[in-house]
Design a protein that fits this description.
Structural class: mainly alpha
Radius of gyration: 15 Å
Largest sheet: 2 strands, antiparallel
Number of helices: 4
Helix content: 40-55%
Distance between the termini: 47 Å
Length: 83
């Protein structure tokens, strides 16, 4: 795959999936299919339809995830006043 080169061709929902799953080593077949459709690539698939990400792809996704602030879910693990 060439995620870095194709990033701007991915729709925001697909980009968000990658950002929320930065530790993924093998893309599920559904994400592989979406990636191939959105980019017109033909990423190699394993027998289950998934795709093994290269080190370069994983590093790119992890960097994107690191730079992106998580959405504010309203849940706070620590309260500011210590409750």
């Amino acid at each position: 795959m060439h995620i870095k080169e194709q990033w701007n061709r991915l729709d925001p929902v697909t980009q968000q999936w990658f950002i929320e799953n930065p530790g993924c080593v093998i893309l599920p077949r559904t994400i592989t299919a979406v990636f191939n459709k959105e980019t017109a690539e033909n990423a190699a698939c394993d027998q289950h339809g998934g795709t093994v990400l290269t080190d370069e792809d994983r590093n790119f996704i992890q960097a994107k995830a690191h730079r992106t602030k998580p959405a504010n879910s309203g849940y706070r693990f620590f309260d500011a006043v210590g409750h």
